[in-house]
Amino acid sequence: MTAQAAATPYDDAIGNSEAMEDRIDLSPVRRMLATLGDGTTELNEGDPLPPLWHWMYFLSTAPQAELARDGLPTSTGILPEVDLPRRMFGGCSLKFLAPLPIGSPVRREAEVVGITEKTGRSGRLLFVDQQHRIGTGDTLCIEENYTSVFREEGAASAMPTALDALPPAPEGAWVRDITVSEPFLFRYSALTFNPHRIHYDRPYATDVEGYAGLVVHGPLLATLLLEVVRRNTERRVTSFAFRAQAPVYDIAPFRTMGLPKDDGVVELTAIGPDGATAMTATATLD
User: Fold this and answer.
1) Cα–Cα distances in Å, from 136 out to 102, 108, 203, 215?
2) 269, 166 in Cβ contact below 8 A?
3) 200-220, pLDDT tens digit by residue?
4) DSSP letter at 69?
5) Distance of CA 139 to CAs 44, 106, 152, 237, Å?
6) Between the CA of residue 181 and those of 30, 36, 226, 254, what are the distances in Å?
7) Which domains, from first to last, does the chain contain?
């Protein structure tokens, strides 16, 4: 893939910013526990919000009339208006500087900090980098940098061949195999107010966008990777970075796996039903 050195037509959007206020309500937290199948953890007001669960807040309020064919808003807020029809979550890095207490008022400041256009085998790609600063009162709790990817229409995806059994995990790894279902994907879409139809509308996902099945959300994959950490250690996550590499479909169980290292780093991987790596991530523990 070759980067284009010239400025993009979208560079005027660099520096676009907005601020939003919200409250870390308890009800979505309990719905997330139910969606993730966690019937043992009890979270109450004042407890720290688990990492990445802030994605249930600061949600879009785009009117129904402004949704495009794929379900996403045509008005993209601080993002540039892009002539590429497909939008994906590319990757993210976060620093968890202080706990975000459930029940607290919160503020998020967002800014577009970079735009890069590339070309490759799938055609034009546009990478839009945003920076978020999230806090409560005078305390900065989360610094987040994430990338949205816009691309051209592409050929239909090949149906992956699910393995009879996923390969054995390395010794000492934390492993959780997950079976996704339409209700699971729908509930996560509802919790994050994500109307993208590739996650819950099978005819649209397969017949229109050419995917091999319903697509597991990139943020959901990342959340499930950190769930492996949360379920296996009480140490606090201080930083996390992930990169999506391939889609995961709801055709068969997939694996989330963490390999703890002696230096407090956990190497995390999501492995698709076909055994291919779908997402890699690194978490740092205190």
Assistant:
1) 11, 9, 42, 34
2) no
3) 999 999 999 999 999 999 999
4) T
5) 20, 10, 41, 17
6) 20, 12, 20, 12
7) 2-285 (3.10.129.10)
